[in-house]
Recover the amino acids of this structure.
């Protein structure tokens, strides 16, 4: 009786094993990759990226598995960029600012008070300006950048002491900015005292009053709960940035073209969906954070741009970026310098 039961169990187990082996999802992945990013798991960056990697696994029949490591698990943005360039990490999502220490031109879309609205933004970044920068990334950084930029949003200023109505309110203010030259340059030209630090340190720096304020898109202000340690949000729209989805160049070349196509297609497709998510989120976030006690105001934008022009800011950055890319920028936003 025992022998029959044992044979039955063995036969059953063999059948299950064969069935599992026939199932593509049960096979060990041919390419097991890691993707690090800075956003909380509730941010559209993470939720749409998760959908993208699930689709990639499905469409490659399990040959490609991408493990997502969100919320600065592997360090700050600059750390993850360095890890991706070295090959310790396979993918990261640097914004133009974060990529700029490696490729200064990557920060051209972050020029202070350059873009007036999303219509100008996507026309430029999906058009000639974006193509020009992407070509530079793919030939000069050891990275491979996907075509579609994921939305990081227009940046707004939050403070603990007073609202920012014009550049006069920024004089001497200790304001946290990303660890990039263009962020420091922008706020120095506006009269502030910028303090560079990684995003992972921002909440505690505001809580302990190491800095008076910070600047980030509304979606990050909400998901990182910045409203808990700030009183005012000034809708300056002072800079726009977007994420580049970047792969380590050597790793990317090792992947067969058919799998490259599936990966790139999905990362581009879900990037467009993420843009829609951020647009919807932004439409509701102001009233949502107002209900949590954050006071909003709408500053005089023209005064900020005039201050930058007077300080020689636009002329300086035109010289740094070069005449050709600056011309592509002004093709979409009008004359700046």
């Amino acid at each position: 009786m025992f022998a029959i039961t044992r044979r039955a169990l063995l036969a059953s187990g063999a059948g299950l094993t064969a069935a599992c082996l026939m199932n593509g999802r049960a096979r060990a992945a041919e390419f097991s990759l890691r993707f690090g990013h800075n956003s909380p798991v509730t941010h559209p960056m993470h939720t749409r990226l998760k959908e993208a990697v699930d689709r990639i696994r499905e469409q490659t029949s399990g040959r490609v598995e991408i493990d997502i490591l969100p919320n600065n698990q592997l360090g700050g943005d600059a750390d993850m960029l360095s890890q991706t360039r070295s090959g310790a990490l396979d993918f990261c999502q640097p914004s133009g600012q974060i990529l700029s220490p490696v490729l200064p031109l990557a920060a051209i879309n972050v020029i202070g008070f350059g873009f007036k609205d999303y219509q100008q933004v996507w026309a430029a970044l999906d058009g000639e300006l974006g193509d020009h920068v992407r070509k530079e990334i793919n030939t000069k950084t050891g990275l491979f950048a996907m075509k579609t930029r994921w939305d990081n949003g227009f940046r707004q200023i939050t403070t603990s002491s007073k609202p920012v109505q014009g550049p006069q309110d920024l004089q001497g203010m200790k304001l946290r900015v990303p660890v990039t030259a263009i962020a420091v340059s922008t706020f120095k030209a506006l009269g502030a005292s910028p303090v560079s630090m990684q995003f992972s340190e921002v909440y505690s720096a505001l809580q302990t009053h190491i800095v008076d304020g910070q600047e980030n898109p509304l979606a990050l202000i909400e998901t990182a709960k910045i409203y808990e340690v700030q009183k005012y949000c000034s809708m300056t729209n002072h800079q726009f940035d977007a994420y580049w989805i970047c792969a380590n160049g050597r790793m990317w070349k090792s992947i067969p073209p058919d799998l490259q196509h599936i990966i790139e297609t999905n990362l581009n497709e879900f990037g467009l969906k993420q843009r829609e998510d951020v647009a919807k989120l932004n439409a509701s976030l102001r009233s949502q954070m107002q209900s949590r006690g954050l006071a909003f105001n709408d500053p005089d934008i023209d005064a900020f741009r005039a201050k930058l022009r007077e300080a020689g800011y636009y002329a300086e950055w035109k010289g740094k970026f070069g005449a050709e890319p600056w011309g592509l920028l002004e093709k979409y936003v009008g004359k700046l310098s």
In short: Confidence is low (pLDDT under 50) at residues 1-25. The two ends are 91 Å apart (CA to CA). The first strand starts at residue 31 and ends at 36. The chain has 14 helices and twelve strands.
